[in-house]
Amino acid sequence: MSAATVPPSSALLSLRDVHKSFPTGRGRRAGRTVVLDGVDLDVREHACVVLVGASGSGKSTLLRVVDLLEDVDDGQVLLDGVDVADPWVDADAVRARLAMVFQAYNLFPHLSVLDNVTLAPRVVHRRPREEAEAAGRATLDKVGLGHKVGAFPDQLSGGEQQRAAIARALVGGPELLLLDEVTSALDPELVGEVLDLLRTLRDEGTTMLVATHEMDFARQVADEVVFLHDGRVHERGTPAQVLDDPQRERTREFLRRLG
Ligand code: ADP
Ligand code: MG
């Protein structure tokens, strides 16, 4: 099928001309900072799309818009062709189809790893404890933490805490996993275990939209790399295209700065 005949709904997630600004300053200095200035982006089922761009280029804002943590000023955020940016949409139903993992793991310190992972299934989705715990244990096994179910977050390394946070995101079987710089808060020696897990998820066909500074990781896992600059998708393509043979000066400059 040529690109022109692929219907728009063939992407699981599509952003169409998304605009987002934030108020800045007060009084006479009040204004707005435009962060997303007409972003178009598609994530197909089973694809891994990696967002790159300078700090402040809007990667987190874009992910937060998709996760309905931020309203958009204009444009569409289509999940399976349905505009979830519409204020009338059932936000909880949309969020149940998505899961986001942040830079800071945000585990509840007073809950065991298993309870952290099963909290949403039990409390939000009202699944019986036994069923939620079986799913929680299976998911923790999958991320390599089957032996830590009873541990508390402060008894885990940073890498283990982040893997527990990823388990918590996965336990409900989301259709799309949103990952925001999930290795940025980790000591360098712990980054590898988290990236290995993401690689495994990707190989299993998990649909992912990932913001990262890890260019080697992007090179290995991305089906598509999207470079954000000036509130727009400045350049996009395969990792080989964008990271090894960038066509635009801003992309080259960004990559040079990363060294
Ligand atoms: P990135 O994740 O690429 O570093 P962000 O999406 O975090 O970029 O931020 C993009 C811009 O939006 C930054 O200038 C940031 O200061 C601004 N911004 C993000 N969230 C808010 C907010 N809630 N209020 C005001 N400005 C914000
Ligand atoms: Mg960010």
Summarize the structure.
This protein is an alpha/beta fold and 259 residues long. The protein has nine helices and ten strands.
Rg estimate, integer Å: 19 Å
Averaged pLDDT: 92
Number of helices: 9
Bound molecules: adenosine-5'-diphosphate, magnesium ion
Task: State the name of the first-level CATH class of the largest domain.
Answer: Alpha Beta
Order of adjacent strands in the largest pleated sheet: 6-7-8-3-9-10
Query: What is the helix/strand order?
Result: EEEHEEHEHHHEHEHEEHH
CATH architecture of the largest domain: 3-Layer(aba) Sandwich
Strand content: 25-35%
- The share of residues in helices is 25-40%
For this structure, the CATH topology of the largest domain is Rossmann fold
Please, how many domains? 2
Write out the CATH superfamily name of the largest domain: P-loop containing nucleotide triphosphate hydrolases
- Strand segment tally: 10
Oligomer: single chain
Largest sheet: 6 strands, mixed
Ends distance: 39 Å
Structural class: alpha/beta
Form type:
globular
Regions with little confidence, pLDDT below 50 for 5+ residues: none
How would you portray this structure in words?
With 259 residues, the protein is of the alpha/beta class. It has 2 domains: 1-97 and 176-259, Rossmann fold, CATH 3.40.50; 108-174, no CATH class. 35% of the residues lie in helices and 25% in strands. The chain is built from 9 helices and 10 strands. A 6-stranded mixed β-sheet has the order 6-7-8-3-9-10, sandwiched between helices. Strand 4 (74-79) and strand 5 (82-83) form a beta hairpin. Helix 3 (113-124) packs across helix 4 (129-142) and helix 5 (158-170) packs parallel to helix 6 (188-203). The longest helix is centred in the C-terminal third of the chain and has 16 residues, at 188-203. The radius of gyration is 19 Å and the shape is globular. Bound molecules: adenosine-5'-diphosphate and magnesium ion. The site of magnesium ion (MG) has 4 residues, from helix 1. Residues 59-60, 180-181 line the site of magnesium ion.
